[in-house]
Amino acid sequence: MDFEQYRQAIVDEDQLGWLSLMFWVSGGAALLFSLYFLIYVGLGLAIASIPPTGDASSPPAFFGFVFAGIGLVGFAFLATFGALKILSGFWIRKHKHRVIVMVIAGISCLEIPYGTLLGVLTFVVLGRRSIAVLFGSPSLRPVPPTIAAPAPETADSFEGWT
User: Fold this and answer.
1) Per-residue pLDDT tens for 130-162?
2) pTM for the full predicted model
3) Where are the domains of the chain?
4) What is the pLDDT of residues 6-32, one digit of tens each?
5) Among 87, 138, 81, 80, which Cα is nearest to 106's?
6) Is the distance from CB of 39 to CB of 71 less than 8 angstroms?
7) Burial class of residue 108 (count of CB atoms within 10 Å of its CB; 0-12, 13-18, 19+)
8) Lowest CB count within 10 Å: 13, 24, 105, 125, which one?
């Protein structure tokens, strides 16, 4: 291993370490923000539990259940995505599942501005050939050399022989 390869290996490991840390922070923030949707669940259930009074001022119980359902869906989506980001941080540290990490980074690009920055940096770092080799990408295995077959001779190549 020459000096440039050694230097690139150090840079790659350093950038992968920072990238995994950024995924952990982003995943933790997503898990924390997913708790916000539990407020919707609580409010929805509170609205649904109001006894009907018979007048038009009380909301129907169905409205509360819809409100709680939206909160549950939002909580489940954000908590799942946060857990996947944290898993991506571990996968980056272990040099595994490069394509899955890139898919999660692509979805993360929808979280403007921090998620977009994280996704773009992930594409830049994981898109490098030296990183792909670290992750054991099957498309980067050495290809055996091939011997080019000679071109078939045509009638044009014998023009000067007559």
Assistant:
1) 888 888 866 655 555 566 666 666 655 555 555
2) 0.76
3) 3-50+59-139
4) 888 889 999 999 999 999 999 999 999
5) 81
6) yes
7) buried
8) 13
